[in-house]
Amino acid sequence: GSSRAAGSGTLVLHRVDALDREGQAVLLEILTEARPPARIVATALPSVREAERSGSFRSELYYRLAGQILD
């Protein structure tokens, strides 16, 4: 759906912090398999870095999205 529509453009993911662990797994799978890869902009309200450290946000997804972090 959205990843195919983004093509080689930009895919904006708003509030990735609101995803439960199952939703995070689905998003990680979509991002891993996206062809061609799109530029990703993800937003979060609380610190996703802290959520990853506490275990409530998947490390694999955090590192896939963490190219540039703006606090």
Largest sheet: 2 strands, parallel
The number of helices is: 4
- End-to-end Cα distance: 30 Å
What gyration radius follows from the Cα positions, in whole Å? 12 Å
Shape: globular
Strand order of the largest sheet: 1-2
As residue ranges, the low-confidence spans are none
The share of residues in helices is 40-55%
Percentage of residues in DSSP E strands: 5-15%
Short précis:
The chain is an alpha+beta fold and 71 residues long.
Structure report:
It contains four helices and two strands. By secondary structure, it is α+β, with helices and mostly antiparallel strands. Strands 1-2 form a two-stranded parallel sheet. Helix 2 (21-33) links the parallel strand 1 and strand 2. The longest helix has 13 residues, at 21-33. It is globular and about 35 Å long. It starts with a helix and ends in a 6-residue tail after the last helix.
Structural topology:
Layout: H1 2-6, E1 10-13, H2 21-33, E2 39-42, H3 48-54, H4 59-65
Parallel strand pairs: 1-2
Which descriptors would you attach to this protein?
single chain, alpha+beta, 11% strand
